[in-house]
Amino acid sequence: MSDLFVALTPPNLLACFVGTVLGTIVGVLPGLGPAGAMALVLPLTIKLGPTAGLIMLAGIYYGAMYGGSTTSILVNVPGEAASVVTTIDGYRLARKGRAGAALAVAAIASFVAGTFSVVALQLAAPLVARAALAFGPAEYFAFALLGVVLLANLTGGSRVKSLAMVVVGIMLATVGMDPLGGSVRFTFDVAGAQAGFSFIAVTAGLFGVAEVLTTMAEPASTLAAAKVKFSELYPSREELRRSVPPMLRGTVLGFLVGLIPGPAATIASFVSYGVEQKVSKYRHELGTGAIEGVAGPEAANNAAAGGGMIPLLSLGLPFTPSTAVLLSGMLLMSVTPGPFLLRDHPQVFWGVIGSFYVGNVMLLLLNLPLVGVFARVATIPSRYLMPGVLVLCVVAAYSDNNNVFDVWVLVAAGIIGWAMRGLGYNPAPLVLGLVLGPLLERSLLQALTIARGDVRGLWSSGPSAVMLIAAVLVSLAPLVSVVRRRVRA
After folding, report:
1. What is the pLDDT of residue 214?
2. Domains in the chain: how many in total?
3. For position 253, what pLDDT does the model report?
4. What are the CA-CA distances from residue 313 to residues 128, 260, 410 (Å)?
5. Can you give the pLDDT at residue 87?
6. What is the pLDDT of residue 412?
7. Residue 131, number of CB atoms within 10 A of its CB
8. Closest CA to 63 of 317, 322, 383, 432
9. H helices present in 283-427, as ranges
10. Considering all CA atoms of the chain, what is the largest pairwise distance in Å, rounded to the nearest integer?
């Protein structure tokens, strides 16, 4: 527990500060998203070392949840999908001259929810990790397979398209060296492909370059941000009183939703808003500029971010694209998340949790006085902003392995990512397959080696059999529902 204070050392404090500022800016900017931003700075974080590097990545992750509310309230443009609900009442409050109060309540709700989720994370993650210590290769294979099936619908869109993207990601993960035998496969003798596809190059292309191409294809537009004075940030006593119940409800709801695979922060904000429409004393005001419509959803999406860290740190399973990038960063720094993380890397484990406490305070202090500055980032014309994003993508891809092949992978991934957006395919499940693919393959090979090639070894234990049966049932559930609808028709 004393390792919590490792987050207070000067290098880690600086890493946390830089991460939270970058995360806030990313949350303000519509399009790029925390997953893309984290992929861009992965090479830098690797140089910082495991503790400081992961603290910076975590700062970007939860900082983006804070920043997304700023443009939602001031210019009616959500920086993050999780802040879409905030535009409903937040922008109307701004039109009424209460933008400062809405921004302050959003920041306070984010701080309360973030702090609650970190306390729960601190208590729950070690318990979940101890329960997973009984897992062997067969159990890990079954668990990874169940995770792939559950997370196939990561984005909440078409399940078939999402599953296809996961399969493509797993296929890409097999390019390069066999994890057990060491033989090179699927490279077609292309120079530089022996190490496989760089995760940084693929994600920077799918998110960063694709965003640049999408912006280029759209007409340029400049947003007008409302000016907010520091003296106007104080909500009235009545607004504070009304915001406390939805804030607490959103915190609990968001944390619980964060434990479920899928776009947790987005789902949590919608669920919170729906609950307020049912139970709030002022539900008749929702949609016209009610403070409850800001407090509840903002608390929910921040609590969900903390809840999603429990399966990542204790089981090594990412439930969102952002935590998938965070998992990749851990693996690149030779830190394996899961049951042994607390035993093998206690400073990393407690340092990241401690940074959540520090980061929440930093974000509260940053977001209140500098909210006007962050809002104006969204008004930068794309002709100035996008070239900088493109340069960052190229530098990130090349510096990963100092390999020109990775730059070509970046370009190809960017073009494919842009085409995927046009065809309605979300790249997030592909990233998930790219991350879970090696774990799935390695655990399968290890389990078969232990069982001397007998496939029955995969379901010989009770936990692995239960998880494999659950994976089959989850896979068949959509097909059964379609058949039932057709039979009824």
Report:
1. 81
2. 1
3. 86
4. 9, 15, 29
5. 76
6. 92
7. 12
8. 322
9. 292-307, 309-315, 321-332, 341-344, 346-367, 371-377, 382-401, 404-423
10. 72
- Dist. CA 308–CA 155, nearest whole Å: 15
What parts of the chain have a pLDDT lower than 70?
A: 1-4, 29-33, 71, 75-82, 84, 128-134, 151-157, 219-234, 260-264, 266, 370-380, 382, 385, 399-400
**Is the CB of residue 135 less than 8 Å from the CB of residue 339?**
yes
Name the token pair of 314. Answer: 């204790």
pLDDT of amino acid 415:
92
- Whole-angstrom distance, CA of residue 308 vs CA of residue 121: 9
The answer to whether 302 and 196 are in contact (CB under 8 A) is no
pTM over the 0.85 mark: no
C-alpha span between 230 and 370 (Å, rounded) = 9
The backbone torsions φ and ψ at residue 140, rounded to the nearest 5 degrees and listed phi first, read: -65, -40
Q: What is the number of alpha carbons within 13 Å of residue 42 lying toward its C-beta?
A: 32
Strand partners, 184: 177
SS3 string of the chain? CHHHHHHHCHHHHHHHHHHHHHHHHHHHCCCCHHHHHHHHHHHHHHHHCHHHHHHHHHHHHHHHHHHHHHHHHHCCCCCCHHHCCHHHHHHHHHHCCCHHHHHHHHHHHHHHHHHHHHHHHHHHHHHHHHHHHHCCHHHHHHHHHHHHHHHCCCCCCCHHHHHHHHHHHHHHHCCEECCCCCCEECCCCCCCCCCCCCHHHHHHHHHHHHHHHHHHCCCCCCCCCCCCCHHHCCCCHHHHHHHHHHHHHHHHHHHHHHCCCCCHHHHHHHHHHHHHHHHCCCHHHCCCCCCHHHHHHHHHHHHHHHHCHHHHHHHCCCCCHHHHHHHHHHHHCCCCCCCCHHHHCHHHHHHHHHHHHHHHHHHHHHHCCCHHHHHHHCCCCHHHHHHHHHHHHHHHHHHHHCCHHHHHHHHHHHHHHHHHHHHCCCCHHHHHHHHHHHHHHHHHHHHHHHCCCCHHHHHCCHHHHHHHHHHHHHHHHHHHHHHHHHHHC
206 with 413: CB under 8 angstroms? yes
Phi/psi of residue 185, nearest 5 degrees:
-140, 155
The tens digit of pLDDT for each residue in 191-229 reads 777 878 877 788 778 877 887 888 777 755 544 445 555
Q: Is 235 exposed, middle or buried (0-12, 13-18, 19+ CB in 10 A)?
A: buried
Domain that holds residue 271: 2-488
CA terminus-to-terminus distance, the chain: 60
